[in-house]
Write a structure and sequence with these properties.
The structure is a homodimer. By secondary structure, the first copy, chain A, is mostly beta strands. Helix content of chain A is 0%, strand content 49%. In chain A, 41% of the residues are buried. Chains A and B meet through β1, β3, β4, β5 and β6 of A and β1, β3, β4, β5 and β6 of B. β11 (116-118) of chain A pairs antiparallel with β4 of chain B.
């Protein structure tokens, strides 16, 4: 399919959704997740060949990275190499919502201007 | 680097940030963008080899996909194949914020459980 769409609705109501199968992703797995206040990942994990990026959308808490714990909050973005042991926990006062993006390490060659093509067609707002 | 971090701060204040160089991404380019109310992409574009995923975080508006315009809103997620001509516009009443993820088509082999390794180490919340 040339494009695929899935509506998760208001983000505050999203507990956990994985998008790869819902929108036919071929270059990543993307999930939207909410940790209830005071709760954390049930175990620490690493990866074989995927890097992960976490973007905190709401709330605050802790990230565990190879034995070191650090505070995170809305707007924190972290890239984690496959072999790093990682986990997250929400603070005691609020749920913590984040987006997690998995992609294969060293898989992208060029981005944005180098990969993009400017088209001459006009959308309604460009006419 | 095994992991990299960048804090963009409260999302409502983010106009546009590209994360690839800030957190050393090797499998994707990720940006957080805000279209001011009533404004859209200044031109329609496609890509050479990257698929793009858009996740609307706030607001609502329109997406243009190969000549067809459709409404989008908070919680809309869309995967777009490289060759598709695309653009977005925010409605007249609110800014529209979204995350855009570029990754190379057909670049990921296995995800989540298949790529993950459960570690025995314990974070503070697991002890």
């Amino acid at each position: 399919m040339k494009h695929s769409r899935y509506d998760v609705g208001e983000l505050k109501n999203v507990e956990r959704v994985f998008l790869k199968e819902k929108i036919d992703l071929t270059g990543s797995e993307i999930s939207i997740n909410t940790l209830p206040k005071g709760s954390g990942f049930p175990f620490i994990h690493s990866h074989r060949e995927n890097e992960e990026v976490y973007i905190i959308l709401k709330g605050s808490g802790l990230v565990y990275l190879d034995g070191v714990e650090t505070e995170v909050a809305e707007g924190t973005t972290i890239r984690i190499s496959p072999e790093v042991k990682r986990g997250f926990m929400a603070n005691d006062t609020d749920p913590m919502q984040f987006i997690c993006i998995q992609s294969k390490v060293n898989s992208i060659d060029r981005v944005t201007r180098e990969d993009g093509i400017r088209n001459k067609v006009k959308a309604s707002w460009l006419k």
